[in-house]
Amino acid sequence: MLKLAVFDFDSTLMDGETIDFFAKELGIGEEVSLITEEAMSGRIDFFESLQKRVGLLKGLDFSVVEKISHNLPYMVGAKETIAELKKRGMTVVCFSGGFRTATTYAKDILGYDADFSNALHVKDGKLTGLVGGDMMFNYSKGDMLVRLQGLLGVSSEATLVCGDGANDLSMFAHAGTRVAFCAKEILKKEANIVIETKDLTQILEKI
User: Fold this and answer.
1) pLDDT tens for residues 71-110?
2) Contact 179, 193 (CB under 8 A)
3) Domain range spanning residue 125?
4) Is 10 among the catalytic positions?
């Protein structure tokens, strides 16, 4: 019986990549989205890609970051799926290589229990191009999942994980139910549930 569900945020609970929305404001959307694509496909190191992309955002007003973060398009079925999983007695958590401005704001809207993500460094109301937080490395999601399982007393067999990119691989290693959602090939290979349509409620029919 499943007791814990962990969802990625960007391109999973949310339809798009938060950092790409920020980059568009600075007119560097294409440059940043190319690096994002390389990282999500597993062709470049996630930590290096995160540092590089956030570095390109230096000077962006934090008020703009907050406005974008609070107006993101959530994935079809996200709210309904989380509500149903919680009704089934599961703890639902969000792990994101993205940012707290988005994941913490979305927590009460989508209904998950906790979020672990990264924080953009801000000085004098603008981004400095620096970033820190819980989800900086390729191994971060798996590392946090193991700690969470220990804390909650939940086995890997009782854990569901859902994501779309290479930085979700580390948590796939510690879960019995592994959902690749509109995912990159590198992640699909490790999944036992593959969903190709942008509708998270499809998970409910498969578990």
Assistant:
1) 999 999 999 999 999 999 999 999 999 999 999 999 999 9
2) yes
3) 4-203
4) yes
